[in-house]
Amino acid sequence: MKFTKYLILVAVLATLGLSTPLSAQDASESGQTKLEQEILRMDSLLFTAFNNRDQETLGVLFSKDLEFYHDQGGLANYEQNMQATEQLFNRDYILHRELLPGTTEIHPIRDYGAVQIGRHEFCHEENGKMDCGTFKFIHIWKRLEDGKWELTRVISYDH
């Protein structure tokens, strides 16, 4: 039941758009800070785009100076990451990412944005059945002058 409430909250936040401000009252009623709500909303937008293979939205959410560190794949910049994502999306199989509830920490970075630390599950179809793994990540989000957010650094590890 708790997971269902979380999914409903994420879905509602995702429909608010990229730059809709949240009131302090909304944050206090949910037990989350405004920053936590904003970053969870951005996480939802990012991985709704991923799960729907929406490369265009991903291209907007990723900073042009993106650095993506993967413990097995190494370092990729924006262009390399977008190419790898396109290749992944062109595969003919089910692909899904889900943030694991209760595993996310969000902390402000003064005069920059926020760091999001957590665990997520990725699933894909392999040999006719779903293959899922749980992994750790660190996302560095930058708040732009117009109030929108972009993802500038990704560290994906513990694969």
From TrEMBL:
Keyword annotations: Signal
Pfam families the record matches: DUF4440
InterPro entries xrefs: DUF4440 (IPR027843), NTF2-like_dom_sf (IPR032710)
UniProt domain DUF4440: residue ranges: 39-150
Record-linked SUPFAM superfamilies: NTF2-like (SSF54427)
Signal peptide: 1-24
Protein name in the entry: DUF4440 domain-containing protein
Lineage of the organism: Bacteria, Pseudomonadati, Bacteroidota, Saprospiria, Saprospirales
